[in-house]
Design goal:
Layout (H helix, E strand, L loop, with lengths): L24 H4 L2 H37 L2 H4 L5 H5 L8 H16 L5 H4 L4 H7 L10 H11 L4 H12 L30 H6 L9 E3 L2 E3 L1 H8 L3 E5 L22 E4 L2 E6 L1
Helix pairs in contact: 2-5
Length: 269
């Protein structure tokens, strides 16, 4: 017989609020603690508003340095090298996302910073494809977008799935986390192959060839020469960093794409 004992000190403590409903909160905590909870939430919301302002301020400065090529004055050959330098230390994908949000929402004149300071930048990213100040119905669309930003992230994604057939994000699960999306979940506006081409494709990579004079090299050889294998994050870039291999006419098609928030990853095996 094996006897297993757990000391009292190792048993997880049960918080008084774990065993009551929201209607019963007043029975187990003091009015002082209730006041503290509401004050803490208001402080959080105040900090959140500042975070939106800071995000756009960072984006504005990143954009000016990128557009004016000031990174060269600062001792770097390109924007990516500068933004990921030890002094700046901003992930390049994050930098480009910030700039893209700032250009679409603020530079375009679509919104003011004051209109957005109570909003979530993550929901702004989800709604980015619908920000079009040149559209004929922009005034009405703007009101709708501000309303959609009031929804929870889960409700927003569900609304886009249901009302607009926008499946860039899978329906939330696992405590609200966005589930992994597959290639079939990419919206119709993306470079998605027609079904016949999709069925005829290999498991991961298809239709990749190199055109060099009269020579045609199969996709497997192209993949081998490029040393492609595993997951790759897709990020926008101004230009490639440093020297690289050039294979003209090559098309690599993946059937497995994963979304994590606003990041996109492709799997090449």
């Amino acid at each position: 017989m094996i006897e297993v004992k757990k000391s009292v000190g190792k048993v997880g403590a049960v918080h008084p609020l774990d065993t009551v409903s929201t209607e019963q909160v007043g029975d187990v905590v003091s009015k002082t603690e209730i006041t503290k909870a509401f004050d803490e939430e208001q402080s959080l919301l105040k900090a959140k508003r500042k975070s939106v302002d800071i995000t756009f301020e960072i984006a504005a400065r990143l954009k000016r340095i990128r557009d004016n090529r000031w990174y060269k004055i600062l001792g770097h050959n390109d924007f990516q090298e500068w933004v990921e330098s030890p002094e700046i230390d901003i992930d390049r994908a994050t930098a480009y996302r910030y700039i893209k949000l700032y250009e679409a929402y603020i530079v375009s004149g679509a919104f003011t910073i004051e209109e957005l300071e109570d909003r979530s930048t993550s929901k702004m990213e989800i709604l980015l494809p619908y920000v079009d100040v040149q559209s004929d119905d922009w005034r009405n669309r703007k009101v709708k977008l501000l309303g959609l930003m009031e929804l929870s992230r889960a409700d927003l994604v569900e609304h886009l799935n249901r009302e607009l057939s926008d499946n860039r994000y899978a329906l939330p699960k696992n405590n609200g986390e966005i589930a992994n999306a597959t290639f079939e979940d990419v919206p119709a506006t993306s470079a998605k192959p027609r079904k016949a081409e999709h069925d005829a494709a290999d498991d991961v990579v298809a239709n990749a060839v190199e055109v060099a004079g009269d020579r045609t090299i199969p996709h497997s050889e192209v993949k081998k020469r490029l040393n492609l294998s595993g997951w790759y994050e897709l990020v926008p870039v101004d230009k490639p960093v440093g020297e690289g291999k050039e294979i003209h006419g090559a098309v690599i098609q993946t059937q497995v794409v994963m979304f994590q928030g606003s990041k996109v990853f492709a799997n090449i095996e």
